[in-house]
Amino acid sequence: AKDEGKNQFRVYDVTLNPNAEETIEIKNSLRVALANDEFIVYYQPQIAVDTGQVVGLEALVRWVHPTRGLIPPNDFIPIAEETGLIVPIGERILQLVCNQSRAWQDAGFPPIRIAVNLSARQFAQKDLSQRISSIVGKHRLDPQYIELEITESLVMKEGMQPALHSLREKGFTISIDDFGTQYSSLNYLKLLPVDKIKIDRSFVKGIARDRKDEAIIVAMLLIASRLNLTVIAEGVETVEQLSFLQQNNCHEIQGFIFHKPKPAEQITELLASQSHR
Ligand code: C2E
Ligand code: CA
Ligand code: CA
Ligand code: CA
């Protein structure tokens, strides 16, 4: 027993990364999935710190595979981006979100803001702003209830700035996802029309454990407040994290401490219980 721990193998979880064979299979079936309408959207509530109310939802795609069941986005979005299929898939996701939003409003719920993730590849379309606003308009939705999440790594791609300005002018909210994880975050704030930042989970994890993470979060909140930006923290799981963010005036919280991403029917129940409160 003394020598236990020596000569141990690292055990890798193969489910974390699909192997090469699986990747090829996914690549081939993504096109079929699109044609057969196998994508669905889960929604994760975003909570206002001051009122505790659900003030927004983030739309997170899932693939309902006929034989493999529910496939998480990390297993196919990177492949969809590589193949360019993210463009039609992204558009389909926006349509699903708009359908759902229209259904909730038709059922009598007050309009709720829904955040949609945009991939860099989608900005390669010259008419992205036009396409988005046309889908939203067809569903008779006010753009102020659609938030567009952009990840930092892709924000500066050529041609992106005009599209973002045009979307902002149409009334969409622009938010920077995974804020602080790339190398030129502050430059993005300076150059792009941004309404909101999402503090990445990697910083939130360090609350009550790592003074550097705490200092960085405080600094982000200060910069955001000086620039009049809304701040949401994502990946909030513990009471310690929540109270730290509360004390430092973070506006909104998204994380398992409140809700995991859920299918639309469960969100309907949540919205119903909130409106009777
Ligand atoms: P993301 O945009 O950063 O989304 C947040 C991810 O963190 C989600 O994973 C969510 O379920 C997870 N999460 C939320 N709260 C917590 C928490 O408290 N603890 C932990 N451990 N995790 C939490 P999900 O749904 O698996 O999505 C993963 C990524 O896939 C997303 O990261 C996004 O980059 C991408 N993705 C998802 N849906 C779409 C989409 O419709 N379009 C595009 N382009 N990408 C998407
Ligand atoms: Ca996101
Ligand atoms: Ca994120
Ligand atoms: Ca992320």
Descriptive keywords:
277 residues; alpha/beta; 8-stranded mixed barrel; 21% strand; disordered N terminus; binds ligand C2E; binds calcium ion; Periplasmic sensor diguanylate cyclase/phosphodiesterase
What does this 3D model show about the protein?
- This protein has an 8-stranded mixed beta barrel, surrounded by 4 helices.
- Strand 6, helix 7 (185-191) and strand 7 form a beta-alpha-beta unit.
- It is of the alpha/beta class and 277 residues long.
- It has 11 helices and 10 strands.
- Helices cover 42% and strands 21% of the residues.
- Bound molecules: ligand C2E and calcium ion (CA) (3 copies).
- The site of one calcium ion has 4 residues, from loops.
What's this, in brief?
By secondary structure, this protein is of the alpha/beta class. The chain contains eleven helices and ten strands. The protein has an eight-stranded mixed beta barrel, surrounded by four helices.
> Taking Cα atoms only, what radius of gyration do you get, to the nearest Å?
20 Å
Main beta sheet: 8 strands, mixed, barrel
Strand order of the largest sheet: 1-2-4-5-6-7-8-9
Order of helices and strands: HEEEHHEHEHHEHEHHEHEEH
State the shape. globular
Beta-strand residue fraction: 15-25%
Distance between the termini: 59 Å
Q: What's the oligomerization state?
A: single chain
How does the helix and strand content classify structurally?
A: alpha/beta
Mean pLDDT, to the nearest integer, reads 91
Poorly predicted regions are 1-14
How many alpha or pi helices?
Answer: 11
- What's the total count of β strands? 10
Instruction: Give every kind of bound small molecule, once each.
Output: ligand C2E, calcium ion
The percent range for helix content is: 40-55%
